[in-house]
Amino acid sequence: MPTEEELFAAVDTLLAGEPALPGPAERSRLREAAGVTQARLAQVLQTTTQTVKNWEAGRSEPRPPRRQAYQRLLEGWAQQFPADAAPADAASTATASTAPAPGDTAPAPAAETALAHPAPATGAPPRSRTPHPEKAPHPRKSHRPAHRPTPPPADQRFENGPLAVIDVEDGHVLAYCVGGLVLDVPAKSLPALIDWTLTEARLGQPRLHRNGRDGDPLLVLTPAALERYGLPTALSDEERRAGRLPDGHKAVRQLTRADWKLTRRGLGPWARIYRPAEGAKRHCVQLCIPAWNALDAREWDDRNAPRLPSMHPADLARYLGAYAERVMTPRGTAAVTGLELMTALHPPTRAEKDPVTGAFTRALNEDALTAVHDVVECEVPDEHPLLKGRFARHHLRTPAEMLMEEPYDWCRPLTDDECMRQYLVAIDVNMSFAAAANGLTVGLNGPTHLTGDPPFDPSLPGSWLVDLSHVDLSRVRVDGRLVDGGRLPSPFTPKGERPTGPAWYATPTVAYAVELGFEVAPVEAYVRTRTGRYLDAWYKRLRDAYVTTMADLGVTTGLGGAEFLDAMARSRQSDPVMALLVGAIKATAKGGIGKLRQRNRGQVPYHEPWPALERETWRPDIRAAVLANQRIGLHRKLMKTAAAADLYPVAVGTDAVVYPSPGPTPLDVLPRTPEGKPVPGTFRLGVSPGMVKHQGTRTVLWAEEQFEEQGGVFNIANHIKTDPAAGEGE
């Protein structure tokens, strides 16, 4: 037991306090005055260069025993280089060491950053404006770092951002957050990590709609973090097929003993760990495990040159953090997140106060998808339970039995005149599915069956059985001119073939036949009477995310023509992390629409209900309407271009169009007015959704060689890419 004198001495020491370190700017000034680099100082103190940078930027404070050694060193330098002998602007130079003045070359701190924290294998250059800190104080110990690289968000509950990448370095568990912030993680086990996230990390995202719910914090676990918390760095073949760890795994048992629960998908690549909510307060954390293929290269990475496996945790936090801030916190795959974004922007329910009792009850929102409705035979895929016993297992349903609204997959042989042109230029529509969703009226309730040859009503979304085989494009005048219908795809079938009899079509397709000037006579229909522009907010959120990210790459909405093409060419090398973000946003738009008709991929036996059917957002009719609108919008521009310049496509693949051209760029082929502007209604170069970019160029000779090798004409639209690393079209 300590003596009274020892206790009094300890109290006196506490009252006196520890000697204060100089401020961050002074620390940097003293080191520079001594001519010592950050790397050399880190070597002497047996730490990392980035840690020294954090001390000098005020993002963290040294701890014993380094604190005492650092204190002694700074005191010695202060005697050798007093502040009054320093240049007048020394403090400003120290605090802004990463921003060289005009005429300066490479200042020492920036150079040391490059040496101490080299650019990851992704090819991303060192980011001098927001250097990656290595060790920051735990929130419980320092509350907040003295300096934050970015201003805190308005909602202080989530002041550290929506997510963190958990990594282990030099035995310390670190949480890399958005804006360059790094937190120390004291948790020794997986349950403790979940507790820390909910009680101290201040992670999460404010709701996107007043009637929605806040985004749960997301933890991205690196392989080092997996090892620290007793999780495998790779799943076995059996675990990969199951998509989860077995319930008997040690980590799952740990969570269960700590009263944490897992959702139906278990502890897999995207896991949700929760306790039942207490009133409006949620207790839920989501895990993302890239080593288990949570971030599939087809959505999140460059499939031709994967970057994620070697990406530094700080860059991964920057990437996913930017996605969360511009789209939403990832909830799973990009496709899953695209669907969840619809619900987040249009929550199905709201709290409503009873005027009599004063109690709050749950009320439905009229502008949302609020219930699982009856489905329609023609709108569901072959494996749906509704079709059980209706057709033989391998029966191919005809257009009169199934709604076949899909994107284009069409091609034709080149004419002799077209073969005389040297090039084939492919253009690609930006965010074509998102653009097709904009302004589209969709059904919000269940189907109403119309029989007895009902008149067509373009204001009612749904499916119509109607014969459009009489529509002849060669009889259509566009701006007073006839077009060559034989060189254009039919707007009514994905393969571009002219229909031969009655078939099911979504409302936008039938409305286009009327727009072209033809009579339509439906036999029957399934329509929705409660309607709305459900996808408008979803489109605007994704549009803004896409346009903002492209601007980060140097491609802005004010650019057109040659300037736009030059900016697009430069963008591929400007910022690899943001380039990945562009692909993820596009995958979110495309995948979200696809999830509206999520199919049974072997989850349950054929013709048995699968989990997706339980969602209010399982709406194949809405997917069909978007795809129909995308295809019709593309065809409308094909017609305008043909009429304006006698220019016809030779292939169309989803949203890519191939034109014969005398020159190698879109500027050589796309029609323009005498003033040099795009002809109204035709394809226009630009970054906004619905406008087009250059996908690639090949020669006509190359195409003929391809046809000869394949034994006939095939769709070359998505085989024409100037830059193979640019990825597939949408």
Note the main attributes of this structure.
single chain, alpha+beta, 730 residues, disordered C terminus
Distance between the termini: 74 Å
Shape: globular
- Computed structural class: alpha+beta
The largest sheet has its strands arranged as 3-2-1-4-7-6-5
Number of helices: 23
- pLDDT averaged residue by residue: 87
Give the oligomeric state: single chain
What would you report as the Rg, rounded to the nearest angstrom? Answer: 30 Å
Percentage of residues in DSSP E strands: 5-15%
Query: Major beta sheet, specifics?
Result: 7 strands, mixed
How many strands? Answer: 22
Low-confidence stretches: 86-152, 723-730
Helical residue percent? Answer: 25-40%
Structural account:
By secondary structure, this protein is an alpha+beta fold. 33% of the residues lie in helices and 14% in strands. The chain has 23 helices and 22 strands. The strands form six sheets. It has a seven-stranded mixed β-sheet. Strand 6 and strand 7 form a beta hairpin. Helix 18 packs parallel to helix 22 (620-645). The longest helix is centred in the C-terminal third of the chain and has 26 residues, at 620-645. Residues 86-152 and 723-730 have low confidence and may be disordered.
